[in-house]
């Protein structure tokens, strides 16, 4: 019977959970907007408010992204990418605005041998061992 069981790896989330504190009056106003049908729930209201602010400041974000040479969006670093960098004698500088992922099969030793610095505005997904190995190189 166990031969019919297959391990299913959970799909990585495409978002990151954050926590915010709001005053009671602000929270009540959010709840009123939800109750009146303007938003489906508190999360919908907060996401919309954040997107509106980001859109309002889009020019500043675009200029800063270019000035800081940030890769925008999703950036995956595979074991093969890091091994190729090691063969070429290159050190990588990871600069990402969004999500940077270091593959689960990357060893801490390979990461230290090929990654000179890590700067991620958003989220970094990597094994705890790799994150620990790169802690002194992460801003």
Automatic annotation (TrEMBL):
GO terms for biological process: regulation of DNA-templated transcription. InterPro entries: Arc_rbn_hlx_hlx, RHH_8, Ribbon_hlx_hlx. The lineage of its organism: Bacteria, Pseudomonadati, Pseudomonadota, Alphaproteobacteria, Hyphomicrobiales. It comes from Bradyrhizobium manausense. This is CopG family transcriptional regulator. It holds the Pfam family RHH_8.
